[in-house]
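Shipment paperwork, digital attachment
Item: protein structure file
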Amino acid sequence: MNIPHSRPSLTIEEAEAVDSVIFSGQIAQGPVTANFEQTLAGRIGRSQAIGTASGTAALHLVLMAMSVGSGDEVMIPSYVCTALLNAVHYVGAKAIITDIDPASGNMDPVDARKRLTRRTRAIIVPHMFGCPGAIEDLMELGVPIIEDCAQAIGATYDNRPVGSFGHAAVFSFYATKVMTTGEGGMVLTDSAELADRIRDLRDYDKRPSYRLRYNYKLTDMQAAMGLAQLARLDDFIRRRKALAAEYRAAFTGTGLRLPTENKGHIYYRFVMGVPGGPVQWIRQLASGGIRCARPVDPPLDVLLGKEDCPNAQAAWQQHVSIPIYPSLTTAERDRVIEAIQNQMESHS
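Attachment content:
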């Protein structure tokens, strides 16, 4: 039986929560969405929360509400999915692609400083794979920070939740994220003014005057599922950390380059540097029913034909992400460990 690379952790609790909303008759954005917003804001320590249709929509709305547009620059790392690039382009701004720290996979503050200009209006800082980025070093650049917590809800930096540092923070609840609502996202901020602008942009109907607005709402069905998932988030994280510790114990000394150790890391992905490159590993492990993946494919500097971020390119050419999620069984974990150990032996 195949072991997927990613798999949501769902129980009867999510089904019952959604069922309750369906039978209430109020299924679109409403009181359950408001409850989800308030609950997540309280968890992260923010005063304002706005549910959205996706993490990309959340990022788009933040940039619009900050009046970022044509002639402006927004800094993003190369080693990340294209959603960030898309959001920058949605508002007509220019994306400045930065290199990464090779140990963590996160934006490199030194390289970011080199690429900073007077036109830089925002820096989007993803906490990649659940590992907190160098948020304080990046905040010292003096540009508004947007934290991208799509892969890192529940992670901490200096004992504070990620998402509690920047001018705003965005979250994603896609099917395979740390917690899921199927699709969906959230913006958190402490700026009431920014939050009001985002709420205005999130829904286009029944307004006294016209401007371009969007249908970027979260539904009460999604929010009900989100509340059920949020109640189990600490259990999810404990399981992810336990699996990471078991992988680390099994693979230490094998020659694999293991993820950086960080007490705030929640291990959304377990990303390893492998000999021979990821393509061969992914193919070989798939032949045994274990699905692995390149965690980013390709980095943005390669995608855009610039190829000026050597650390991101090296990560792309070396990294493999292996299954790690709360619903991974002990037997499945053992199969993953055995297959990777066998793969390493074949390279020795």
